[in-house]
Amino acid sequence: MQNNHQSRDVFYVSDGTAITCETLGHVVLGQFALVAHEKTFPFIETEEKLSELLRTIDLSYQKNGIPPLVFFSIVIPEIRTQLLHSPALCYDVLESLVQRVKDDLQLEPKPKLHRSRSVSKDVDTYYDRIAAVEYTLAHDDGITLKGIEQADIILLGVSRSGKTPTSLYMAMQFGLRVVNYPFIDDDLKRLKLLPEFEIHRHKLFGLTIDASRLAEIRQSRLAGSDYASLRQCEDELAEVEALFRREAVPYINTSSLSVEEISTRILEKAGLKRRLF
Amino acid sequence: MQNNHQSRDVFYVSDGTAITCETLGHVVLGQFALVAHEKTFPFIETEEKLSELLRTIDLSYQKNGIPPLVFFSIVIPEIRTQLLHSPALCYDVLESLVQRVKDDLQLEPKPKLHRSRSVSKDVDTYYDRIAAVEYTLAHDDGITLKGIEQADIILLGVSRSGKTPTSLYMAMQFGLRVVNYPFIDDDLKRLKLLPEFEIHRHKLFGLTIDASRLAEIRQSRLAGSDYASLRQCEDELAEVEALFRREAVPYINTSSLSVEEISTRILEKAGLKRRLF
Questions:
Q1: Which residue out of A97, A169, A267 would a mutagenesis test of the B interface target, given it has the greatest number of B Cβ atoms within 10 Å?
Q2: How do the domains of chain B map onto residue ranges?
Q3: Tell me: the pLDDT tens digits for A62-101?
Q4: Which residues of chain B neighbour A34 with C-beta distances below 8 Å?
Q5: Which class is domain A123-270?
Q6: Which residues of B are annotated as a binding site for ADP?
Q7: Any idea which architecture B6-105 has in CATH?
Q8: Is Ribosomal protein one of the keywords UniProt gives this record (chains A, B) (predicted)?
Q9: Distance between CA B249 and CA B155 in Å, rounded?
């Protein structure tokens, strides 16, 4: 019977940020019963940095008696060749896809330094993205509704339902301008939509959450407070969900979802286009 | 001679968020002279959503007379099979890597719904990440230095040198707690490090930027102001860079770097470990 919990050193290596390598390698390894000791080596673009990496690979091999795994993306031919000759199991994360697209489309690939999301690729697009982060930050948590007409989406929800991290992720990843607005205690007694939202109705999107989860999150902030009591959480959520239904505001429950999942689901339901950087 | 600018519909398809598919597909296509019309289809996990996608593929094929490209990651076998039988060029973004790791390690993969960065995978880790975003937001732009001892890193720089987006990215992507502190006009006349930073010296990291680029960014905010004048930018940057050198604070120039590149370079130089989610 094979060993179900092999342990391996895993290195993510790139002449760029190595973010794509680590994301992909991490997902691939998630399918195996393997304890991975992961380390990332970005910007391997000089002989000096390569030497350091090769030493690390050698040491790992000597120490463990088995080759480390390397998920890599390297364009510079000499660096690539030397890496491939090291005592590691090397996986080029792009090669097989590039090869297949090449064959299918009969186009020659032009490998280039892997600068996904780099500034130089498209300056205006990049600054749009930064502007989206700044807009979103300025419109966090109801700070202001000035400039609301520039919003791509307006998130509504009770305090601690996940609005802020979701807003920032949507801005950073997809370049969207997000306003988020909390329902606070005072609003709850006479719950209705702000008049300012009326002409932006199509941009409204609600976040809700299980009351028990919300109470837990609030407890970690203000233990023992009314604000964090299960009763208070239940009341607030009931009011707010009733409002969402009454006003036909689409909404999702964020309880077991990551910011990536929440953001993606909102984009999908709201019919917003993702922007790729 | 082959056509150098083929145009193709490109679909990113997953039973998860499809973020990995689109990142990877986008990078792969970046190597080809191809005009890609990209669209993303997340959460393809029901027959209904699959049907909608298959209709889109059919329509694309009919309209263009050539098959669209599909970069996908689908675990559910029936959905996978139907997709593979559609009139599209389908690329499984994980398959070849999983296969090679399987062969090399002699381990059986256990495909699972692609929930990279999901909450359920590791609740504590996920909430650490959200806590990092909240910490970073609370310590943006010198708002407070309370709790500075919990910071993983402290970014210093003049106004508009890229501190805020970089801080938020480091928190969101790597789960780091970041304090960022601007040098403002008053500080500049008697420029030294705050006494509060003294015992956290090893956490300090500086951002600088080309004066012309800084002036351009500031002009778009406050056109015609002293603040945005090239002279003022040059003076501030000279002062601040002198301080960085005098105090041996490591620093980088952010002018042509994206937040991903800035963050990765800082992590590398500061010897901070990336956390993978």
A1: A97
A2: 6-105, 123-270
A3: 999 999 999 999 999 999 999 999 999 999 999 999 999 9
A4: 105, 107
A5: alpha beta
A6: 157-164
A7: 3-Layer(aba) Sandwich (3.40)
A8: no
A9: 10
